[in-house]
Amino acid sequence: MRRTIELAVFAITILMVSMIADAACGQSAPQASSERPNIIWLMAEDMAPDLECYGTAGVHTPNLNKMASEGALFTKTYCANPICSPNRSSMMVGVHQTVINAHHHRSNRDIPLAAPFKPITSWLRDTGYTCILGNSLVMNSGRKIDCNFKHTAVGPYDGVTKFGLFDKQTDFSPADQPFFNQIQLVVTHRGDWWNDVRAKSKHPVSLNDIELPPYFADTPEIRYDWAAYLDQVEYMDNEVGLLMQNLKEQGLDQNTVVVFIADNGRCNLRGKGYLHDTGIHVPMIVWAPGYVKPGTVVDDLVCTTDISATILKLAGATIPDYITAKPFLGVDQPQYRSYVRSARDIWDEIDECSRSITTKQFSYIKNHMPEVPWATDQAYLELNRPALHVMRRLKKQDKLTEAEMTFFREQKPAEELYDLEKDPDQLENLANNPEYASVLDEMRAKETDWLSSNPDLGLDDLGNRHPEQGLAAETARAGVKANEPELWERLEKGELLPTSQWMKKYRPKKKPATVAPAPVSNDRVKKKG
User: Fold this and answer.
1) What is the DSSP letter of 255?
2) Which H/E stretch holds residue 363?
3) In whole angstroms, what is the distance from residue 67 CA to residue 126 CA?
4) Which one, 257, 352, 389, 494, has the greatest CB density within 10 A?
């Protein structure tokens, strides 16, 4: 039976229009229109490829399935960063966040982008596109931006000092053509609405139908949290259907390219914030009449930054020399990657520095701060991940299996190497296995190759980071424990609770992280990886 989430009344507007489109494949595609297409970029939040069309158990996503059957489904899309604001920054500019000084989460928001970098909306405006943020049919009107450089959402943009990223916040219409519309799909982000969405679902995801990864303890609390997450995915899928219907009703469906992508992986253990696959591997589905052969499946490597070069190419806009993104649509030969380089730096209270190289078969992670455990305290994670509390309790009782203990090691290894074909859950670290010594050397060489042509300001500022960005989540956790004992007891039992008010009340107050901008010469920014 197909599921349908009942789109009921919320304090926030909760109907989401979602779309998917853009695809480049090495196969013959229908003839594209000579007119410049409208472009819709749908950004789901905190979601791994947990869709029915990717084979995820227990979830039903008929609208996204339809998009994939009419467009292209990308199986190997990886983020430049596993956290929202750094990765969104890289996607909006087309350059990795470690190059543009946007690598720490929610930092440098009082500093404009250093020359020559500009957000892609600047280049689209120069080409005559109307740049629109959000849509009234989606939760919170889909207007989140979350970029780590000085900007305002809407207003003039002169490419130097004024950073209005979009022309207006409104719904798209035929009068706006050609338009670029970025819409945020927030429902899959951890939020106080999760229980409400599940409660109002006509067919909530069954706890018996889901499949937990082997590094999760199999308990009713963890199964409930996982099912509630998939309920949000199904809710979003219904919103995708609404957008498609709205696009067709306005007669815009034949000359609009829609890209559906997530900003980073799912918010759970080893997901968002971590360089394992569930943190950086995201879904991307492209719906583009005239540009892509329906039913295409692309197994080549794509970086999420590549969406920017693709959008500029489709629009006929200038693709500046500094852009390291590679267009995968609108070109005769899509420029897929031999590897994707990703980076993780400061995330709220967690000071961290890790780098990764992902190929089709292998994942290599270099942990520059192995002394910082994966399970390091953080207010946001403490209050929003039931599995963390449940598995901490089981750990104290010595009831976790070896696989389930993976996230709770006291220290990270300096290097990690995984065979994604044989070990998709990344449980067997091959870095010290002599049989894989040559593979390890190859992956190290790829990291060296990347650094030879691209600055990494996150490596440059190691040892010179702000103390208030250190491991200080205990303040927020202690505040809840001391003042809200009943709440904390429920959290420790693994209950999924609306916690945003408590985060705001007890989270440590700190100024946004700021790192002095470093000028970047174009000769160091090459198109690698």
Assistant:
1) S
2) strand 362-367
3) 30
4) 257
DSSP-derived secondary structure for 418-469: EETTT-TT--S--TT-GGGHHHHHHHHHHHHHHHHHS--HHHHTTT---GGG
Q: How many separate domains does the chain show?
A: 2
Q: Residues 141, 233: one domain? A: yes
Clarify whether residues 321 and 445 are in a common domain.
no
Max CA distance (Å), the chain: 66
Q: Tokens for 112? A: 């404009």
User: Is residue 325 domain-shared with residue 385, that is, in the same domain?
Assistant: no
Residues 153 and 278 in one domain: yes
Give the model confidence (pLDDT) of 75-87 as tens digits.
999 999 999 999 9
For tokens 């599921």, the residue is 3
Cα–Cα distance, 120 to 489 (Å, whole number): 47
Residues 6+ apart with CB under 8 A from 467: none
Quick: pLDDT tens for 295-354. 999 999 999 999 999 999 999 999 999 999 999 998 888 889 999 999 999 998 888 999
Cα separation, 265 vs 495, in Å, equals 22
Task: Quote the pTM value.
Answer: 0.90
- pLDDT (tens digit, 9 = 90+) per residue, 426-472? 999 999 999 999 999 999 999 999 999 999 999 999 888 764 544 44
Residues in the chain: 529
Looking at the fold, whether 378 and 448 belong to one and the same domain comes out as yes
Question: Residue 8 falls within a domain, yes or no?
Answer: no
